[in-house]
Write a structure and sequence with these properties.
Layout lengths: L3 E3 L3 H9 L10 H8 L4 E8 L5 E11 L6 E6 L3 E2 L5 H14 L4 E5 L18 E2 L8 E6 L4 H7 L2 H11 L4 E4 L2 H18 L6 H11 L4 E8 L2 E9 L8 E9 L8 H15 L4 E3 L8 H7 L8 H7 L5 E4 L4 E4 L2 H13 L2
Parallel strand pairs: 4-6, 12-13
Antiparallel strand pairs: 1-2, 2-3, 3-4, 3-5, 6-15, 7-15, 8-13, 8-14, 9-10, 10-11, 11-12
Length: 346
């Protein structure tokens, strides 16, 4: 029986996403709500069988490029099908939806596939590899299925020592309240200014906290004698066997850096993921280079994600790469112009 497009309620959509082995926060309806409050538009493209059950779907985020010359239809960390034969009809439906929104092209980032997860094949679906990503394609993934001591033993000696140092320092690790989300936002601002990267405003982090905690995320804070020293926003859709947790946002203070709170709070976030039954902890983003290049250059570079690689490499994880970003042109002449403009930026 052919699948038919439907407009799902947020609850029906989320039930569909949560049932997927590779369910991701960026495909939940609440993520669409968050991004819609900050310059994007969201649409959930769903296909159902005759009983009304969703069998295939993707949450699509739309945004105009500066100058509104190009319009992007972006599918992050999804979508999903019940059977591989349903991919063509899903992308046909996404293309039709994107065309109604005047999108120039579809950008698809299928995400990271670990363990037994089977990745889709974008090229076989008419996508071409994109030179421009939204999410960092390469990361460090920590296997957290083993005993704590085994996980610690995989780390380098310096990371283990700093975790233990943070545990002896009298730091308190807590899951943040709504009021604490504003304090975390201020800490993010301080971190961004110190390390030279952009951050969201306080309302963004406050809304993310309200939408995703406690079911799908936690904001873990490190406090010492009234001072907020570090924080980590960690997420995993429902947790469970084989699921991934991922470190989305992190911040640290200039105060009391000798207490190593950024190590202790990351370890507390890993403990949160372990308690939910997650198999993997994704440190979410390192430079997109082969491991030999990373090891050769990380001590000499601090631009972009190089500044965090030195921290992330010590946690005993694997350097892995997701499928990256893939484009499917909709308005071909404008897409060709977009690619030409990207080539001129190199």
């Amino acid at each position: 029986m052919p699948l038919k497009p439907i407009t799902p309620t947020p609850a029906a959509w989320d039930e569909f996403v949560r049932a997927q082995p590779n369910a991701h926060l960026l495909q939940l309806s609440a993520w669409g709500g968050l991004k819609s409050a900050f310059g994007w538009a969201a649409e959930r493209v769903a296909l159902a069988d005759g009983s009304g059950k969703i069998r295939a779907g993707a949450q699509v985020l739309y945004k105009a490029f500066p100058g509104k010359l190009f319009y992007l239809a972006y599918v992050p960390m999804g979508g999903y099908v019940s059977d591989d034969s349903e991919w063509p009809v899903l992308w046909s439906a996404v293309r039709a939806a994107a065309l109604r929104r005047r999108a120039t092209f579809i950008k698809w980032e299928p995400g990271l596939f670990l363990g037994d997860d089977q990745p889709p094949q974008p090229e076989a679906m008419g996508f071409r590899l994109s030179p421009q990503t939204v999410q960092p394609p390469r990361t460090v993934a920590i296997d957290i299925r083993d005993d704590e001591q085994v996980i610690l033993a995989r780390m380098n000696q310096g990371t283990r020592r700093k975790i233990r140092q943070s545990q002896k320092a009298g730091i308190r690790y807590v899951e943040a309240s709504a009021a604490d989300a504003v304090r975390f936002a201020a800490l993010m601002q301080q971190t961004g200014e110190r390390n030279g990267f952009g951050v969201h405003g306080a309302n963004y982090y406050r809304m993310a906290h309200a939408l995703f905690t406690p079911r799908d995320a936690a904001l873990v804070l490190a406090e010492h004698e009234g001072d907020l020293l570090a924080g980590v926003f960690v997420a995993s859709v429902d947790g469970g066997e084989g699921r991934q947790a991922y470190y989305l946002y992190g911040a640290s203070s200039d105060l009391k850096r000798d207490l190593m709170a950024s190590y202790g709070v990351q370890w507390a976030a890993i403990q949160w993921a372990r308690a939910r039954g997650c198999a993997w902890y994704d440190l979410w983003g390192i430079p997109d280079e082969e491991e030999a290049t990373l090891e050769e250059q990380f001590q000499a570079r601090d631009d972009g994600l190089w500044g965090v690689y030195g921290f992330k490499r010590g946690w005993g994880g694997q350097v892995v790469r997701g499928l990256g970003a893939w484009d499917k042109p909709i308005i071909t002449p404008f897409y060709a112009l977009y690619r030409w403009m990207l080539s001129r930026q190199k």
